[in-house]
Every structure is written in structure tokens, then in C-alpha cells.
Amino acid sequence: EVYFKNLSRQKQKEVMEKNGNNHKLRVCVATCNRADYSKLAPIMFGIKAEPQFFELDVVVLGSHLIDDYGNTYRMIEQDDFDIHTRLHTIVRGEDEAAMVESVGLALVKLPDVLNRLKPDIMIVHGDRFDALALATSAALMNIRILHIEGGEVSGTIDDSIRHAITKLAHYHVCCTRSAEQHLIAMCEDHDRILLAGCPSYDKLLSAKNKDYMSIIRMWLGEDVKTRDYIVALQHPVTTDIKHSIKMFELTLDALISFNKRTLVLFPNVDAGSKEMVRVMRKKGIEHHPNFRAVKHVPFDQFIQLVAHAGCMIGNSSCGVREVGAFGTPVINLGTRQTGRETGENVLHVRDADTQDKILHALQLQFGKQYPCSKIYGDGNAVPRILKFLKSIDLKEPLQKKFCFPPVKDNISQDIDHILETQSALAVDLGGTNLRVAIVSMKGEIVKRYTQLNPKTYEDRLELILKMCIEAASEAVNVNCRILGVGISTGGRVNPREGIVLHSTKLIQEWSSVDLRTPISDALHLPVWVDNDGNCAALAERKFGHGKGIENFVTLITGTGIGGGIVHQHELIHGSSFCAAELGHIVVSLDGPECLCGSQGCIEAYASGTALQREAKKLHDEDLLLVEGMSMKEEEIVSAAHLIQAAKLGNTKAESILRTAGTALGLGVVNILHTVNPSLVILSGVLASHYVNAVKDVINRQALSSVKTVDVVVSNLADPALLGAASLVLDYTTRRIY
């Protein structure tokens, strides 16, 4: 960490010397509407807070200056920014021709402003037609451009505008790994791409705990409760205006029928917005008792409204991006956001052509609570962007360089910009210890924390939260970006809801426990939970012998016996989440009693608990210790003593281990005859002691068609933590809807 900080300071010093010791970077931030200001404002505050490095010029244009859209330039003034220039660039008409004319008008007015300000760099956000005029003007006037949120994919003309600005921009700040890869595929120089996250998330992730009831009452009425209202925000789709107006009409009809208090925001200034406002007025939305129609809500207040809403509906990018930070249900209508990465809180109604479809979606989503998603940011975007700005060398040639294919598969960023590893928080709930670790994408355990597992539910949950918060804070110092939390626990788990249904007797007060909600709410991270046996199988699939194997079984041999089954590359959970309880396969009708209440289970013969039971019996009869062994008076007899005795020639200990190995082998034969895997992986502390016995039983007892199965001992040092991490890493890195 010290090395990294010193290197960063040295780089900034060199850049300052190259640019001239007294030269501050003159940054022009141009904002066109309420939406882009919510992303640019955090950066503007950051620039303003470092006057020793930057000079800030603010240019306001577009719909900010129109009364029908709320005169939103006022919120910039309220944030105490000096507006250096106001440009009226919108040609009214709200049709396709008016959009083109607005771009032309902006191109006419901007050169004079840029000549006067002479910025070193202009920051342009997003994909609006106003932003295209800004980027075109700056590029033609040899002003460096930093483009925010390039590389993303969505519907409508916005895609084309966004990618056009990308080709004009010299530097790129993107929000997701996919966006970064898209920019690289578009031949942009990866040394000039920063994966920072969305700047608005810096404010979002610290907003939810503030006082919110007064805000809700101000906008929706005194009688409204949290999670009992809807926020609606729908814009015209410029490539299919007629259909988008019809869809808006159906949306309003569905909302009227749904009969919940609803805050409706006016659409943006795109072609078709005037017709959408006419639809609102035709249906009497502005005077309907269940509706509040507004032109603009300040971003700080809008955050609180969507964070505590029962649902958000429409086609705004805010719904698929920012709202995921709170786990609020979202209904995304139509094609305007097609291609966006979304969290599981978003329900897509691509073909919203009937009122019933939209009404059904409302019935499915309203009032739910989903895990908080951090796909678009982790709350640390602005420090990264400021660091990136400081690293810009104005002596470098202005002309862009394009990196044409072939592009390397794994492209790392320059350490002077940002060096972060995609990682997971892994939690392992064992019978004795509670462990939390930061695990990288490659399976490296970067940091590990261990505490004794408390005996009560309240103490255990409190300790989990404390350890996770500590680990998440430490992740920033070790340059790890936490994608989510994975939890491995004993017992029967519903992974869809993140609930421990029934626990083993080793973990007390651990039944019907919702782990996902409190941890997700506290950390603003998505949370996954699964049984420890299933997690071991996932660890093998991602990092161990199971990598690339279509069908395999993992057996954990430890205090108990568990496992997981992977079939056609997917984990099997079963209809009631009870699949792969391999320790409770019965191999004898009159065998010893198992902790589950049955008799003759594999676990009753081959688990660490079973071996300890047999070792105690021998010890009580003075038949355990042989020459070369000794025990202290207060020492507790364990399975390890039985194994040691067998190695030293104790025939009774050898017989017990042989019986245990045979029982495990018979269980494996049953598994082979049931699911026919190509690989069996033995994991846990006892695996190496059982592997030969299992192979012998397969050769004696199994059908000839399955005798060729490979039986191996796991080479993973910590399958429980690696499996918990796999829950996160496998899901978050492939999550594109």
C-alpha cells in the first residue's frame, strides 16, 4: 500500500512538472439536463475540493434552462457552483427535426464559449444529443475530452450517439467491466480507459439511512407509507415514437387500475415528449387523487423516493442502473434499455403491448425487496476519476491512437491509474469457527479473519456483520473490488431466498434464518447463501479438479459427511433443496445411530464425529493406546488418535477405519449407480485416509460400466471459503440480461 501511494505521488509530481509547476488543470464540465448533472455533480464537488490541482468552469445548456422541464439549472446554483455560461440551445417542437436543429444551434454557440474559456479538458457525460454537440465542438477545437459512461449498450438512438462520442473522446471513464471490454473492442487505447464505476453511486450508497419520511410526505402526501407507492419515469423512444406513446398510455391505464399512490415525473426533452405530456393531461393524471405529476425532483430527494418505493416503473436508465443500489423492484418497459446490465431487481417487459401485461408485472414486483446490487459502482468512483485527471500529461500528443485488433484477452490497467482485483467476501459458518475472507477471481485468499462461532443467533449475526464490514473496508486498502458476499453454512438452505431452513445440530439457533436481507442491507452488496457441501462442489468446479468436467460429485469428509452434485455443469439443489445429502445415504439397516435420527448412514460410520465416538470406546476399554502413543490426562480423545493408533499397528483401530472406508465406498457406489458421474472428488481432512478404501469397494461392488470412474483427493486448501466465493464470482461476472 505504501509503495502504491508513493508511486502515485511520484507520478502526479512528474505530471505537474511536465505541465508546468504552477499550471492547474482547467476542467470544463458541461451539463445538459437533470440526469447528467446527477452523474457530473459528484465529480464537480471533487474538483472544487482540490483547488491546488484544478480550475473548474461550468457550462449549462439544453433542457436545464427550460421552464417546462423544471429550470433545473437552479439546483446547480443551490449546490454553490458558479455557472460561467448559460447557452439556450433547445429548439422547441419535441420532434426529430427539433433535435437536429438543437444540435446545430449548440454547434453555432459553443465555439465562442470554448475560445473564451480555453479549457485543458472537457468532461462530457453519456449519450444525449446535446452531449454530441459538446464533443464535436471540443474535438474540432483541439480540446481534450473525458467521456463518462462510454461503452455501455442500450436501445434507441442513444447507442449510436454514445459510441460516436467515444470515437471523439480522448479519455474514457466507464462503469462496468463489460463497458470496458466494449471500449477496447471499439479500438480505444486501454491505457486511456478507467474502470471507475458510476459517480452517482458515491452519493447513492451513503443515502439510504438519512431521514426520508419528510421527503416522501412532501412529494406524495401525509398518508403514504414506505414501500407502498410507485415512482414512474418514462421517456419517448426516438426510433419508434408512436409505439412509445401508446406504451405510455397503457402504463398509465395499468397504474390507474393498480390503485396505488404514484409519483409521475415528466419525460425528457426528446422527440415525442410533447405527445406524452398530452396523454398525461388527457387522462387527468395531474388532478387524479392517486397521482402526483412533477417536472423535476432534486436528485438527493429522488434517491430517497426510489430507495423506499414499492416499485419503480418506466424505461429510464435510472431504473436499471441507480435503483439497483437499494434493491427496489423495477419494471423496465420496452426496448429503450435493451442490452443494459441489470440486477435481479429488474423485471423486463420488452413487448409492453397490453395493459394486462404491465398490470401483471406490477402485481409481481410491487412491495418486494431484492439484494442491493453494485454492478455499476462501489461508491469510490470520484477519487479514482480525480486521480485519473491528475495523471493526464498535457505535453502528450493530442491526436488519438486507436488499438486495432487483435486485442489481448486479458488487458490490465496501468497501476498509476487504478489497480484493483475483482473479489468476493466469503463467509464460512462452521460448527466451531466463523471465518470471513477476501477471495480474488483467481482463488487467492487475500485476507482471512477467524473468530469463534457464537452460540446464539443474535450474537452470530452481529459478528458476521462486524467481520464483513471490517473485511469490506480492508478490501480498499488491498486494492480489491468486492462484487458480493457468498456464505457457506451447514444445514438445508434455500439459495433462491438466502434462507437457512434447517441447521445441523453442530450450529445452534440456526433454522429459518434470513441471511441475505440484513447483510445485503448493511453492506449494499448482493448476497448468496448455500449449503457447505454444495459450496465445496462449486469450489472444485471453479478452482479444482472439477474445472471443465461436465458431471462430477464432491464428498466432504470432516466432522460430518456432506457433498455436492454437479450435472451438466450445473449444481443440483433438488425440489426441496435437499439434494446431495450424501452423508445420509443408508448403507446398513442396523448400523449405528446417526445425528439425523436414522441408523446406518455413511455419516454414522465415516465422519469425524463417528470416528471420535469409536476412539472413545476403545480408550474407555484401554484398547486405544499402543507403543509410541501417549495422551495427557486432560486431553480429549479425537479421531486423530484413532488414525494414529491404526498407523502404529492397533488392529482394532485398523478395523474401525476399514469399516468406515467400506461404508463410504458403498455410499459412493450408490452415487455412481444413481447419477453416473465421471469424477468423484474426496475433500476434507479425512479424504486421504479413505481414498484407497473407496477405490477398492468400487472395484468389488460397482457395475462394470462405472468402475472406470476417477476418484481423487481434492487439492484445494480451503474449499469452504473458495466455494462461498464461487457463489459470487460465477454469478456476478456473467450477469447480463
Automatic annotation (TrEMBL):
CDD domains: ASKHA_NBD_ROK_GNE, GTB_UDP-GlcNAc_2-Epimerase
Annotated transmembrane regions: none
Pfam families assigned to the protein according to its UniProt record, in alphabetical order: Epimerase_2, ROK
Broad class of the protein's primary localization: cytoplasm
The entry's keywords: Allosteric enzyme, ATP-binding, Cytoplasm, Hydrolase, Kinase, Metal-binding, Multifunctional enzyme, Nucleotide-binding, Phosphoprotein, Transferase, Zinc
UniProt GO cellular component terms: cytosol
Binding site for Zn(2+): 584, 594, 596, 601
Sequence positions that bind an N-acyl-D-mannosamine: 492, 504, 532, 581, 584, 603
Catalytic residues, chain numbering: 532
GO MF annotations in UniProt: ATP binding; hydrolase activity, hydrolyzing O-glycosyl compounds; metal ion binding; N-acylmannosamine kinase activity; UDP-N-acetylglucosamine 2-epimerase activity
Keyword Iron-sulfur recorded: no
GO terms classed as biological process: UDP-N-acetylglucosamine metabolic process
Biochemical pathway: Amino-sugar metabolism; N-acetylneuraminate biosynthesis
Location(s) in or outside the cell: Cytoplasm, Cytosol
Enzyme Commission identifier(s): 2.7.1.60, 3.2.1.183
Top-level taxon of the source organism: Eukaryota
Reactions listed under catalytic activity: an N-acyl-D-mannosamine + ATP = an N-acyl-D-mannosamine 6-phosphate + ADP + H(+); UDP-N-acetyl-alpha-D-glucosamine + H2O = aldehydo-N-acetyl-D-mannosamine + UDP + H(+)
Domain UDP-N-acetylglucosamine 2-epimerase, residue spans: 53-390
Subunit annotation: Homodimer. Homotetramer. Homohexamer. The hexameric form exhibits both enzyme activities, whereas the dimeric form only catalyzes the phosphorylation of N-acyl-D-mannosamine.
Family statement drawn from the similarity comment of this UniProt entry: In the N-terminal section; belongs to the UDP-N-acetylglucosamine 2-epimerase family.
Name used for this protein in its record: Bifunctional UDP-N-acetylglucosamine 2-epimerase/N-acetylmannosamine kinase
